[in-house]
Amino acid sequence: QLQLVESGGGLVQPGGSLRLSCTDSTFTLDFYAMGWFRQAPGKEREGVSCISSSGTSTYYADSVKGRFTISRDNAKNTVYLHMNSLKPEDTAVYYCAAGVGRCRDGMDYWGKGTLVTVSS
């Protein structure tokens, strides 16, 4: 069973950038669609981005299009979420997830999350 671990969260000023990472130290992520989700205080969890197992297809929520980029490095068994032009409304716990099917089929494994706080 996958054990996804996120890293890279922290406090950043509005307009700043962060890069989140997600990896599994035991199992390969090569064959999984990988997604990033977030949950802000008092709000439901929402999908942020997803990348297919091949890396050829990517999907983004409208709220992050043009600012966030998802990528994967199979050699490092790591998936990234590059976040630019961060806004206070991006503040949330960000979760990495893996799915055995396609992005639209939903996720099967979840990390414990990393907190991103955007504040001056």
Give a verbal description of the structure.
- The chain is globular, with a radius of gyration of 13 Å.
- The protein has strands at residues 5-7, 10-12, 18-23, 33-39, 46-51, 58-60, 68-73, 78-83, 92-99, 109-110, 114-118.
- By secondary structure, the chain is an all-beta fold.
- A hairpin with a 6-residue loop joins strand 5 and strand 6.
- Helices cover 0% and strands 46% of the residues.
- The strands form two sheets. Strands 2, 4, 5, 6, 9, 10 and 11 form a seven-stranded mixed beta sheet that branches. Strands 1-3-8-7 form a four-stranded antiparallel beta sheet, with no helix packed on it.
Shape: globular
Ends apart, CA distance between termini: 39 Å
Average predicted local confidence, pLDDT = 96
Radius of gyration: 13 Å
Largest sheet: 7 strands, mixed
Q: Strand percentage, roughly?
A: over 45%
Classify the secondary structure makeup into a structural class. Answer: mainly beta
| Low-confidence blocks of residues | none
What is the helical fraction, as a range of percent?
Answer: under 10%
